[in-house]
Amino acid sequence: MGINSELPLYTPQEEGKKEKEKKPLLVPKGTKDWMSLEEIKVPETFLQFIPIIAKQKAVEESIEKNGIVDKPIIINPDTHKLLDSYSRYYVVKQKKLDCVPVHY
């Protein structure tokens, strides 16, 4: 009687890790919709700057803890132009997340 190599081998600790990965996605307060980053138009004035490191770190911590930013990105509903929250947009883009919560 040998070991069946087709069955996955894992420890109970690994099973717990899989359960943690499946936690529900947080919906930040104020979210009106979800939008892909490609749909958001960023004004040139924002693109000239890199957000300060402290703001980037705060956004990164939120993403690591919750899987998404803690507050929605503020956009114009008609033009999809970014109005505020460039720090969140910048970090989300760096992390290559597909969608973000938005507020109009």
Description:
By secondary structure, this protein is of the alpha+beta class. The chain contains four helices and four strands, in the order αβααββαβ. A four-stranded mixed beta sheet has the order 1-4-2-3, with helices on one face. β2 and β3 form a beta hairpin. The N and C termini lie far apart (64 Å). Mean pLDDT is 84; it is low at 1-5.
As a percent range, the share of helical residues equals: 25-40%
Number of helices: 4
In the sheet with the most strands, the strands line up as 1-4-2-3
β-strand percent reads 5-15%
- Helix/strand order: HEHHEEHE
Strand count, sense and closure of the main sheet? 4 strands, mixed
Termini separation comes to: 64 Å
Summarize the topology.
Layout: H1 12-21, E1 33-36, H2 44-47, H3 53-66, E2 73-75, E3 82-84, H4 86-95, E4 99-103
Parallel strand pairs: 2-4
Antiparallel strand pairs: 1-4, 2-3
Helix pairs in contact: 3-4
Entry summary:
The protein is of the alpha+beta class and 104 residues long. Helix content is 37%, strand content 14%.
Task: Note the main attributes of this structure.
104 residues, alpha+beta, four-stranded mixed β-sheet, 37% helix, 14% strand, globular, disordered N terminus
